[in-house]
Specification:
By secondary structure, the protein is of the alpha/beta class. The chain has one domain: sialyltransferase cstii, chain A (Alpha-Beta Complex), CATH 3.90.1480.20. Helix content is 36%, strand content 16%. It is built from eleven helices and eleven strands. Helix 3 links the parallel strand 4 and strand 5. Helix 1 packs antiparallel against helix 7. It is globular, with a radius of gyration of 19 Å. The termini are far apart.
């Protein structure tokens, strides 16, 4: 029986590797539009829909995020969430100890902690992961999903990759991972919630995401989830919308774990001006500044001056 179990696990792991390899070859990082629906659960928007302070409702299930394979909604609520950016701004700040004192620590995509503990901390409560980063997690499935890792994973992506009818290539990968590592806590963002996040972008910027040729960032999905889940939010290593125009700004790599990689500000400007296929990082940061005036959101390393 033990031999059969080991053989089965080896077969599943091999299947995951093959699936990841095929996905890396096939994936096209320029996303195709998906159709907008009405705001999730029939929600309507008033002129102050995002800025109105709402009573904090503890232990409310988050219906826009469902587990694989049970389809049960995400249940996690924190008094304080520390969101750790993947930016090179994290380097040299020695914020790790402060971050690790937070009850909930959020990271994005495959950003590592090992080797960067002094600056980014050691613990991880939740990761928000782009569909395009799932293959990177599956290159180290034991590290991310294995025994002893109690991190919650919330994956977002367009319907073509996340559909549950057997034709969603990323969803299929995640389902295999859940079968191979049944203790893993893997959640996917529902189609309705994806459409809701698009609606938020249009409401805040006056621009249709699809028509403007842009794609929402993992940071956008992270902050929308955090405002629904966290009573207070601390964000580390995120620059504001004017930072790259500041004289003598600190030049850092786009990701703290990619030394010598492209400059963060150069990447932001490139994406902001791209006619198609770019993230609107700078636009998103201006929206985050608005949200911070109505929610308990604080920015560290660098701090933001909110007018």
């Amino acid at each position: 029986m033990r031999l059969d179990a080991d053989a089965r696990k080896s077969l599943i792991a091999t299947s995951l590797i093959v699936a990841v390899s095929l996905f890396v070859v096939a994936v096209n990082y320029s996303e195709k539009p998906y159709f907008l629906l009405q705001p999730v659960f029939g929600q309507t928007f008033s002129g102050h829909w995002m800025f109105s302070k709402q009573p904090y409702k503890a232990f409310k299930p988050h219906l826009g995020y469902v587990s694989i394979p049970t389809q049960k909604p995400l249940k996690l609520h924190c008094e304080l969430c520390s969101i750790v950016s993947s930016s090179g701004q994290m380097l040299g700040q020695a914020a790790g100890a402060q971050i690790d004192r937070s009850p909930c620590i959020w990271r994005m995509n495959n950003a590592p902690t090992r080797g960067f503990e002094q600056d980014v901390g050691r613990r991880t409560t939740l990761r928000v992961v782009s569909h395009t980063s799932v293959p990177l997690l599956l290159q180290k499935p034991q590290h991310f999903f294995g025994q002893g890792n109690d991190t919650i994973y919330v994956v977002w992506g367009p319907l073509r990759n996340m559909r549950t009818d057997g034709k969603g290539i990323v969803y299929n990968m995640l389902r295999q991972a859940a079968e191979s590592y049944p203790q893993a806590q893997i959640y996917v963002t529902t189609e309705e919630r994806m459409n809701y996040c698009d609606t938020v972008f249009k409401k805040e910027t006056g621009k249709d995401r699809i028509q403007s040729g842009s794609y929402l960032s993992t940071g956008w999905f992270t902050l929308i989830l955090a405002m629904d889940m966290c009573k207070e939010i601390h964000i580390y290593g995120m620059i504001n919308d004017t930072y790259c125009k500041t004289e003598g700004y600190r030049k850092v790599p786009y990701h703290y774990y990619e030394a010598g990689s492209r400059d963060e500000c150069a990447e932001y400007v490139l994406h902001e001006s791209a006619p198609y296929g770019g993230h609107r990082f700078i636009t998103e940061k201006s929206v985050f500044a608005k949200w911070a005036k109505a929610h308990a959101i604080k920015f560290f390393n660098p701090p933001w001056l909110l007018s």
